[in-house]
Specification:
137 residues; alpha+beta; DNA Methylphosphotriester Repair Domain; 2 domains; 4-stranded mixed β-sheet; Ada-like_dom_sf; zinc ion binding; DNA-binding transcription factor activity; Metal binding Ada-like protein; sequence-specific DNA binding
């Protein structure tokens, strides 16, 4: 396997901590995650975008990939319905960090969050998180 770029590594570290979040995106056909990851179904040999409108597969038959070439190397072919091979959005790791921070603040609103605690929770420096939050709008 080729070495990952920093953004690919960062993306995989963030997502691998939350496989349930990936699964929910598949179940809900969530278009906002298209290009962030792909799911493959072992029984069909096909990989799709999270927003694919095909029948929801059984959870135990699903494998997640973060790059199309990894799905293809694992002998999966692109879905003919959602065509994940034709539209790849550019991944911006800062968008995922902002979503992660918003999720923490919404789900654990009763905690006394500091910039330090938030930055430790998402795995980046406090200064970098502050810049991301300032530029988020």
């Amino acid at each position: 396997m080729l070495p990952l770029t920093f953004s690919q590594y960062f993306q995989e570290v963030i997502w691998m901590k939350k496989p349930e979040k990936l699964w929910q995106a598949v179940v809900q056909c969530d278009q906002t995650y298209d290009g962030s990851f792909y799911y493959a179904v072992k029984t069909t040999g096909i990989f799709c975008c999270p927003s694919c409108k095909s029948k929801t597969p059984k959870k135990e038959n699903v494998t997640f990939f973060f790059r199309i070439k990894d799905a293809i190397r694992s002998n999966y072919r692109p879905c003919k319905r959602c065509r994940p091979d034709l539209h790849q959005r550019t991944y911006h790791p800062h968008e995922e960090v902002i979503r992660e921070v918003k999720g923490l603040l919404e789900s654990e609103y009763d905690q006394a969050w500091t910039l330090q605690k938030l930055s430790e929770s998402v795995g980046i420096s406090p200064g970098y998180l502050q810049r991301l939050l300032q530029n988020a709008q």
